[in-house]
């Protein structure tokens, strides 16, 4: 799942307008922000399955530190805890922690059984929505569109820049998502890792968006 996570981050602005959109997107996408770094460091592994359908073209053979159930819970607590230590806002900290864990929950829905329960267990889970490309696109599109609608219901552009900043990100995310069905995956593990690190630009984009819009 990709745009579904971003949709959930956008929609969370409706629940709590205090944190920046950048922070909400960071929380919702946090596990996938860690994964490329761990890939580059050699802590986790992925392989290309070139003859599989687009959604199944990556074999996530080993990623317990970013995507296991145990570490998803750990990262959730740490993310919320760091926010609470800085802002002293328990409600927002809990929301951000829940957003971090929502990433694993949505991945559990979409992934084939490749999500480890812990680094010390060989059991892997996943409900396999990826086996149906149409169902996956439908689920992600609903989450993405819903998140956009909820974010727009809670914010208003300060000027034309506020419209430009938000809709340019929406179009870019949609383009990234669509291209994944037609573009081959990177040929090297390092290439996947460095491409994944580009996601941090999208998080910074979220901070820019919130500076150009006001809460209503």
UniProtKB/TrEMBL annotation:
It comes from the Bacteria. The keyword DNA-binding does not apply. Keywords: Membrane, Transmembrane, Transmembrane helix. The keyword NADP does not apply. This is Uncharacterized protein. The chain crosses the membrane at residues 21-43, 63-86, 93-112, 132-153, 160-179, 191-209.
């Amino acid at each position: 799942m990709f745009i579904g996570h971003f949709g959930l981050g956008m929609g969370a602005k409706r629940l709590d307008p205090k944190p920046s959109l950048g922070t909400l997107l960071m929380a919702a996408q946090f596990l996938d922000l860690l994964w490329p770094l761990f890939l580059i460091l050699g802590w986790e592994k992925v392989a290309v399955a070139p003859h599989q359908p687009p959604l199944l073209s990556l074999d996530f053979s080993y990623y317990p530190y970013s995507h296991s159930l145990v570490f998803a819970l750990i990262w959730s607590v740490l993310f919320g805890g760091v926010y609470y230590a800085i802002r002293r806002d328990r409600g927002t900290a809990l929301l951000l922690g829940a957003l971090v864990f929502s990433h694993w929950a949505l991945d559990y829905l979409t992934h084939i059984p490749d999500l480890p329960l812990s680094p010390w267990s060989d059991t892997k889970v996943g409900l396999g929505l990826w086996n149906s490309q149409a169902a996956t696109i439908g689920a992600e599109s609903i989450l993405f569109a819903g998140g956009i609608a909820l974010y727009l219901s809670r914010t208003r552009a300060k000027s034309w820049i506020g419209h430009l900043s938000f809709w340019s990100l929406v179009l870019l995310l949609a383009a990234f998502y669509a291209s994944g069905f037609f573009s081959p995956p990177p040929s090297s593990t390092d290439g996947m890792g460095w491409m994944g690190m580009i996601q941090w630009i999208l998080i910074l984009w979220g901070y820019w968006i919130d500076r150009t819009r006001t809460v209503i």
